[in-house]
Amino acid sequence: MAPPSVASWRPSHSPPAGASPLLCRPEAAAPREAPRGPGSAGEAGPGGTTAAEGRLPPTPRRQRSGTALLPGEHCASAGMAARRLGGSSWQQAVALSRRCCLPGGRRERYRCSSSSTALGKTVENSEVTQEEIVLPRKKTWDKLAVLQTLASTVKRDPTAAHYMFQDDPFLTPRNAANARLYSLSKEAGKNAAKYIIKQFPQYFDKTFAEPNIPCLMPEMLTPQIEGVSEEALKERIHLRRVKDSVDLFDQLVQAGTPVSLETTNSLLDLLCFYGGGESTPEKEEEQKEDLEEPGVNASEQKAPKRQFQRGSQSSGSRWRENNNAERIFKIMPEKNAHSYCTMIRGMVKHGASAKAYDMYMDLLNERHKADVDTFNALITAVPYLKERFLERWELAKVFLNHMAQQEVQPNLLTFNALLKTLRKCGGVGRSMALPVVKEMEALGIEPSLATYDHLLFIFYRGVDLSSPGIIIEILDDVQKRSFIPQDPDDANFFATAMQVCCDLKDIKLAYRLNKAMEKGDNWKFLDMDRLNAYWSKFFSLLCMMEQIDVVLKWYKEMSLSVFYPTPKNILDLLQALDAANHLEVVPSVWEDMKQMGFGRRHDLLEELLSLMSRERHPEEIQLAFAKCAEDIKAFHEQTGREQASLDWTGSALSHIALLFSRVGRTQDAWSMMERFQQMNRIPTDQVMDEFLTCAKQTNSPDEAIKLVKLAASLGLPSSQRLKSRTEKEFELSEKQKKTLESIKSDSDSSDSDSDSDRE
């Protein structure tokens, strides 16, 4: 008898569509109770013989592993099971191998894949039912996917400084000023290295890095084309060599060599970008004119003329009269729309708004059309062209109408420029901001963070802050999205929104905003300065509205790792501790103050000493307070070349004397009492009573007598009361009694003098 063929065990139907290939099996191989004997009763074998007859078919030959397989595929599980079962259970072996066979008789196997995308598709024909395997689509992973996955498993270390700083305690910044200084120093070092490489490229012609990463290597900025030609001019324009490009252009003009319009426009682009000056890393940032008007409802409110003129002059001084850009533009034999648009954008960027408007009029007279970027620049310049709020809005509408006439499609930056102009239009801006946003949505343009920043500025500056409706709607949208940079003003949103939350005193909105900031890559919009401002406002709001335990938790997690607390933040924290009656935390706050460099600020020292000396506390806390007072005293007495000694105030002397007296440090307390007379200050009755009590506890009658002398010399009315207390509460020697009796206050001596004059 011929051995049974595996193909003869083909199922008569295909597996259900959508089932995983690993789970696809013919009906004949469905789970059932395993036969106890060789074959099952009443079931005919492949050769027509049943197991009940007692004849077993021979074991089928093993198929070679390389026959009729899909490329690279092998059903290892079935093969391993067949080898383990061996010849004793050939039915199970065949059933297992049959699970990996296709119903067409081909020796193909199902792809063993755990991917849910590999779905079986059934193609039904009249005679034969076939099944094809659809391979899953190739997944293209980002190059940083593995690193990003690993980074997501690591939590932020609340004790570590920002990654940009050196891993050295001496170079770890302790406050915002140091952080800014260190970061600028690091960038200055990078710029210095770039300058050296740029000036002396011949010394850096070898690459020692293994592997070589081109993006981390210095750029080659040395011109390769020599001579006077248009190609050399293009190369220098590409290398952003402003002065060399202008000199070479002048040489070409003097030689009578024509320069193409495209190359001349590229030179204009370079000149207008840098304002006619040389491109340097130290190019100063654009001055930000704060022309936002105070919140008023009158649409005809006139902007302050002096402020307007000051902004115009400061912005106009950056675009020099008859600079290289204007000179080259005038001598151009042919000009197109690109030439005019470049000049307009350059003039607006560098503050020559009036000249930009005149250039736009020339563009219209030449029957050219402006592009969308030019209109965006003109709309941004509107506040510098008109003084009245309504005139500004009317001029902005003129530009919008020109865009419609010239069939220029507005983009996101167009609406952001319009909202930025409405920020400087007072009540007109508040009435027209929402219609502008609706028009923006009607065109299918999604707002960016800069759009929301302008709206918050328009509706929450100088007006009633009782209605949080606008910011709630904004947060509803921001929480749903992860933004990408589309406008330079996008970076201002989170700091502005947190300031609005602080003004509204709404901690729930602040939590929602913080959650939105941490979503996706939104946190990248905050640079170091904005991040510090954001967290500073958030922490102040926490101190104002949250429970003290929550405040301290945020403080420990954020301080010196996420942001650097400002003196106002420390003051808010001290006030929060006072309100919650958690003054035992004050010594740890003082340690942080010393670490941050705030140990010499009078406002913080006064608040700190006032909280510690206001009332008595348990002995352990009082000892910690006295240690803080000792440090503060050392700060007042510290002198050096760069630090001047702090001036003592009467309140500081009183607070420190009280803190020393309550822990029995009589000598330290007396040293503070002596300073009252040295600095012409008057101690309070509480200070003198506390010191006398301290002298009694330490059995120091000499200090008590000194106190009475001090009160008498200052002419205090409490001197007699202190004298009587000393006589009653202290065991005085005869000498001490005589000394005490000889003490007379200035008032007593003045009374005796007046009596003698009467006699």
Describe the structure.
- It is a single chain.
- Among the domains are: 1-35 and 59-133, no CATH class; 191-204 and 219-382, Serine Threonine Protein Phosphatase 5, Tetratricopeptide repeat; 621-758, no CATH class.
- The N and C termini lie far apart (158 Å).
- Helix content is 53%, strand content 1%.
- A hairpin with a 4-residue loop joins strand 1 (120-124) and strand 2.
- It has 759 residues and is mostly helical.
- Residues 39-48 have a biased composition (Gly residues).
- Belongs to the mitochondrion-specific ribosomal protein mS39 family.
Short characterization:
This protein is mainly α and 759 residues long. 53% of the residues lie in helices and 1% in strands. Among the domains are: 1-35 and 59-133, no CATH class; 191-204 and 219-382, Serine Threonine Protein Phosphatase 5, Tetratricopeptide repeat, CATH 1.25.40; 621-758, no CATH class.
